[in-house]
Amino acid sequence: MLKNLFLAFVIAVFNFLPLLAQDISSPDITTAEIKKHIYYLASDELKGRYTGSEECLTAAHYIENQFKSYGLKTAFDDSYLQEFPFVAGVKLTKNNSLEFLSGNKKITPKINDDYTTVSFSGKTNINNKLVFAGYGISAPDIDYDDYAGLDVKGKVVLVLRDHPEMNIPHSKFDKYAPLRKKSVVARDKGAAAIIFVNRFDPNNDNDELLTLKYDQAGAMDDFGVLNMKREVAEKLFKTQSINLMNYQKVIDDSLKPAAFIFKNVNVNLSTEVQEIEKISWNVCGYLEGNDPELKNQYLIIGAHFDHLGMGDQNSLYTGTEPQIHNGADDNASGTTGVLELAQKIASEKDKLKRTVVFVTFSGEEEGLLGSAYFVDHMPFPAENADVMINMDMIGRLRDKSLIVYGTGTSSDWKEILKKDNTDSLELSFNDEGYGPSDQSSFYAKKIPVLFFFTGTHEDYHKPSDDADKINFEGEKEVLDYVYYVFNSIDDTKEKPDYLLVERKEPEKMPSRKVWVGTVPDFAGNVDGYKISGVSEGGPAETAGLQGGDIIIKFGDKKISNIYDFTYALADYVPGDVVEVVVKRGDEEKTFQVKLGTR
Ligand SMILES: [Zn+2]
């Protein structure tokens, strides 16, 4: 018994060893390869593949090596890599200074210690009078105007941050308080610069300066924005024989503005914030078609390979310790899709009619940066592209439910998609060509698109989006399906037509400045913006919204889809309180959401 068992063991080991050593490489789409690619791309070694990082380049080289081994041709002369520039952040140049002259007395605050220039400040050089403009709020509709009767033309206004009713939740002043809002008001009144000072708060005596953080929105042209410590402001008030704390208290208690022009005080200041430009990479290779006519037409298969690194402003992680955002589903899964399809299609390249372009992008998470650059610098003319197939988050197939965007962008798509669904996937179609991933960049160039997606989940944009949560079998099913769809498109004789699906989205990616903390649910066709969840501690959760809610009204705007929602958001700034109506089951509920920022 024992001997036999031992023998069985020996045989088992001998049978197994060659398997271990064996290369798993196969021209077919296999779960073993899917697993291998995802485990590598989503490994801690690649630190979340942050756009422009060393690890992003390592991932690009990995993809490049795979492309090379499949025999793809290089898309850019002798290279698979395409470099593109992007704004990675902001920094202050040497041209930032601040000085107050009161009679023959100088007050010179130190940069970073006593004051700082704010990230969205424009470039300025100003020598003019100083004006105290209370809270910097001009709101005649609530009968409060710090600028009433005040001439601030060309001058520098000093204002308190927040508003006089900070102890009241949902104050009517809330929406006038954000820094950007107050800066725009000051500029529109003719001021040359604004200096923010923290107000006295009996509950919070923190007087720290703002950190310099790029908010992915443009800077203000020729208008200076600064943040100064209260200590310095108190010295300035002293030159007018005024006690700042008492003065603020009078405004807060009476809700009566009390602005004034400083007597005998001149400000000398300059501001300059510089955008930090960095380089990141797309990876692209192709296989030439065989049909003498159709080989001049292109089928593009793509996915983004970047993710959030250690977490950035798009992270939904609420912990304090930075963590690697491995991004296994988002989007090691789609990148792997490109690799597996490239390998499979390359093994049958003699069958190809059209030329196939395989491309992976970075910069997607920062606003479709890589694909936007790619479509403007394509190695072939955009009008020759017949389809762009995008895969973003295809690793979490549940109940065989697969979402396909772009189904209305060519009249051929629906028939092909239904015919090729031999594995009975539960398909939900969304006609729109614009959506939350790289296919948008191609659709904007009038290229029909298809976007495959297995849906959002609670690990979305969190460090917990890990490889062990991927449904590898499910991803193989998705890729087999995409492969059939790809072949059917290549088999069409005519160029697939391009259809315009009416666009409800603003021209540019919406600013990410305002944060609501809702996780979109892209599945199904609902009238409204359906959310699959809310970010922990975010504005939506705080207000009482929950997963499954369908937002149908945002402020005075009716919401029919996610674009209406992002569009409506553009009218607000962080700190605004908005009335939000949702459908929850058969009920309609109204919530007050105080918008945040990340
Ligand atoms: Zn993402």
Describe the structure.
The chain has helices at residues 2-21, 31-41, 54-70, 179-188, 230-238, 244-254, 328-347, 369-376, 413-419, 439-443, 472-491, 539-543, 562-569, and strands spanning 73-74, 81-92, 97-102, 105-107, 115-117, 124-132, 138-139, 144-145, 156-160, 193-197, 224-228, 260-271, 273-287, 298-304, 355-361, 385-391, 401-405, 426-430, 449-453, 518-520, 529-534, 550-554, 557-558, 577-584, 587-594. By secondary structure, it is α/β, with parallel strands linked by helices. The strands form four sheets. Strands 1, 2, 13, 14, 15, 16, 17, 18 and 19 form a nine-stranded mixed beta sheet that branches. The chain has an eight-stranded mixed beta sheet with strand order 4-3-12-6-9-10-11-5, with helices on both faces. Strands 20, 21, 22, 23, 24 and 25 form a six-stranded antiparallel beta sheet that branches. Strand 24 (577-584) and strand 25 form a beta hairpin. Helix 2 (31-41) packs across helix 7. The model is unreliable at 1-22 and 505-512 (pLDDT under 50). It binds zinc ion.
